[in-house]
Write the structure tokens for this entry.
Amino acid sequence: MTATRTLCRFCHTHRFRPRKQSVPVLLSARSHQSTALPHPLQLRTLAVQPPFRKKSALQRFTAFNATPATGNTTMPPNRISRRCSMLLTAAAVLPGNSSPAQTASADEATDRELIAAVKAALQKAVTFMSDTVAVRGGYVYQVSLDLKKRRGEGDATATEIWVQPPGTPAVGEALLDAFAATKDPLHLQAAMNAAEALLFGQLESGGWTDRIDFDPAGKNTGRYRDGRGKAKGRNYSTLDDDKSQSAIRFLIRLDHLLKFENTRIHEAVSFALESLLKAQFANGGFPQGWQQPVEPGTIVNASFPDYDWKTEGRFKNYWDFETLNDGLTGTVARTLQLAHTTYADNRYRQALAQLGDFLIRAQLPEPQPAWAQQYNHQLQPIWARRFEPPAVAGFESEDAIQTLMFIAENTGDPKYLQPIPAALAWIRRSLLSDGRLARFYELRTNRPLYFIRESYELTYDDSQLPTHYSFRANTRSEKLQKRLEQLQSGPLTPPPGRSSDLRSLRRDAAEILQELDSQGRWISDGKGRIIHDVSDRDTAGLWIESAVFSKRVSRLAEFLQAAENRR
């Protein structure tokens, strides 16, 4: 008979038991007497093997308020057992053999304990992130454990922070999530610090670039509107990769939370939104960036170029023309809608509708009724970077479809759905043999286009692709088709907000707490994978990642909100 060992997820105590049934076994943290387990929240059933952790997650997070981060965070064994026993007992009521009242009571007991632990963990994590990792309230993507190396898309200096997600605005939004769930002023103050960092780096042109440098003599210091930057620094506000949009959305949320009473924040976000409106072309499209208000331009429908696009029609300043690159239209649409919802200013709703009009105009004719990545003012596809040719773009076409549905939902106008059926049909007939979608399809022929690594020669061969760019991706066409059918048959309204099952939120919260170390860090390998124990290993190559922090803080906040709503 094979033996199994049951592991309590809170105190990590083990007990061997013959495998006589497939039902997992719950061990009391105090007595180690087994009882039935209703769901896998509090245990794992493992093959017999050496223990893989020496210290429990509970030991790490329950001493938060009792000891400083640099001190001994080991909790007395009797307190661990008491906390674990309460959690496990509360969870041990089986829905099949207990009344609804008993089940609800047990869940509430579990939630009370977990809520307290989550709030303490958030305090610990936010304190470490804001006091130790942040630079003047702002963040980069990754910081080494010794705090000596800092990275955004590239290396960051000691005085630089990143705007592009998952940098400062993304962390700021997670902090707002934490404050909304806890009302803890610690989280609001950290969010305010992030906002102040963004205000420092707002450009004279109204938006932001990829980073902010607090050093007036720094290589990448911009021409900041508060006068603390370089007089001859860059003044190029950019929408590429959600840079300016993410900063604006975070500041809008904070402005609303503060009831529009913080003059600096309200004035900064108002100036940014005014600049965004002035960057919209007459046809409704947006450039990749701007230094000043754009010229309105002409209004035409998209067409294929009437010249040899492989060698002609290149523009050094392609970023000044209409673009869809990297999901730009979707992030701009979300920003405009949030502005309209928050400030009730119809100019933002009009700009959103005009963006939808642009997407209708920018749809190429048959046989490729989809969208390009980059256009000229005549709405003909053009070159952008040397690996971004004039072509029909798979990713950008799916983003255009999703954006059109978003605009239809929020304006109530069905005309924004009209381009979608033909575009989805094009996607279905353009899928590669493995079911994925190419990034680029040759104009008119619809053959997938690729580049040769190093030489960047345009080719139909996908065997030597550059590794820094996504030339193929999974398609979202089935989900888009399903949503289109819902909109065609039902009301043109936004879908209901995503709601997670409280049981899955409990499970995720418990796992996230286990991942947090005694200093309040989620340590990862630089690719988002958590490293649980660094005590006996070389820490080179390990990082504190803003994306990891933001995702986990927001998930913990979601659990707190759901648990509160259940009460």
